[in-house]
Specification:
The protein is built from ten helices and 17 strands. It is globular and about 75 Å long. By secondary structure, it is an alpha/beta fold. About 35% of the residues are buried. It has three domains: about 70 residues, Alpha-Beta Plaits (2-Layer Sandwich); about 80 residues, 2-Layer Sandwich (GMP Synthetase, Chain A, domain 3), CATH 3.30.300; about 180 residues, 3-Layer(aba) Sandwich (Rossmann fold), CATH 3.40.50.
């Protein structure tokens, strides 16, 4: 006797194919109108099972065999896909005036189970309503906070206002296999730099010594050290709360023997302890990193190394202008930029403003 399918699952014909042919198979069955998008594709060892809306007819089998000679047809039980989350606009379309709907924020930062959003002035009176709608549209979000100002001060903090959900600012954020304890009220953290965290980790070589001048809670240092067991990273931040969180994250990710947190001014720490030791320096302080180029050059080994410099380009300034300014700052320290390995825009941060990164080899 055939077993009854589990609730939320359905029996369906399917194509079984090697994973190497998966992308081609998906495109072909979609083009032929056979793809069942209500069911989840199954992955098993080296094979994929692609659910179909029906069994192919004779002509369709011939087409499939011509392009996918190693496929087989089966019948399997597939899990149903979860219905897509409603968008913020869809939830609020009957609760806001039509003229206000275009003003709804199009993006938000999700850090662990906290959503941070910017509410335009026209919707200030509706922020609680918007917060509750975010909780409805993002099931993993437990807290919604609204930005109440820009990132300012030595510690790079922003005032935040609670508008919905649990009243808290602490969370656990996961990124590329790393776990971070974060307090969005006490230490700067941006999930929008996740690709940069991964990129720098992928560039790091075995045995390198790295200085992370403005480490925060450790998204660069922890990921690099977890991806490269033979590195040594000196992680500095002037914010003692950030360093406390970084120390927690070092323990959470079991990289105690690779990441060494230090609280204090980056220039002073380099001069006193970290001169001429680094193969690589990370400078993620875009508002004022140019002021610390001397510290970066002091940390780089006398034989040379790489600096990852993050800065803001505003108004009429160009990426080339930023490269020129950086080169001049380096030359004032008695070092020189041998070449730029990378110079690109990372993200837009405000109207007429973007964050850029320069990867420079320093001699």
């Amino acid at each position: 006797m055939r077993r009854l399918a589990k609730i939320g699952s359905k029996e369906s014909p399917c194509i079984t194919i090697q994973k190497t042919q998966g992308e081609k198979t998906l495109g072909l069955v979609h083009k032929m109108g056979l793809s069942n998008r209500e069911l989840r594709i199954q992955s098993e060892d080296l094979m994929l099972h692609v659910p179909l809306v029906r069994r192919p007819n004779k002509e369709e089998k011939a087409v499939l065999k011509a392009q996918l000679p190693n496929f087989t047809l089966e019948t399997r039980t597939f899990a149903k896909k979860s219905p897509p989350n409603k968008t913020l606009r869809h939830i609020l379309e009957n609760q806001l005036q039509p003229s206000l709907l275009p003003k709804l924020p199009r993006a938000l930062d999700i850090i662990g189970d906290i959503a941070v959003i910017e509410i335009p002035p026209e919707l200030k009176q509706k922020e609680t309503l918007i917060g509750k709608a975010i909780l409805e549209s993002h099931q993993k979000v437990k807290t919604v906070l609204a930005k109440a100002g820009a990132v300012t001060g030595t510690y790079r903090l922003r005032e935040l206002i609670w508008i919905a959900g649990q009243q808290k600012t602490t969370t656990i954020h996961k990124e590329y296999g790393c776990t971070y304890a974060v307090d969005v009220a006490k230490a700067y953290f941006s999930p929008r730099l996740s690709q940069e965290h991964k990129r720098i980790a992928s560039l790091t070589q075995k045995g390198e010594t790295i200085v992370d001048l403005f480490a925060g809670v450790g998204p660069f240092s922890v990921l690099i050290s977890k991806s490269n067991p033979d590195v040594k990273i000196y992680a500095i931040d002037i914010n003692p709360e950030a360093i406390k969180l970084l120390e927690t994250n070092v323990r959470l990710n079991r990289v105690e023997n690779r990441v060494f947190p230090t609280v204090g001014d980056a220039t002073r720490i380099v001069e006193e302890k970290l001169s001429d030791i680094a193969d690589r320096v990370i400078m993620n302080l875009p508002e004022s990193a140019m002021e610390f180029v001397g510290a970066a050059c002091g940390a780089i080994k006398s034989t040379g190394g790489i600096v990852h410099f993050y800065g803001f380009v505003r108004q009429s300034e160009t990426l080339e202008d930023m490269q020129k300014r950086f080169r001049e700052k380096v030359e004032k320290t008695g070092r020189r930029v041998d070449r730029y390995l990378c110079a690109k825009t990372v993200r837009e941060t405000a109207p007429h403003e973007c964050q850029v990164v320069l990867d420079a080899r320093i001699l």
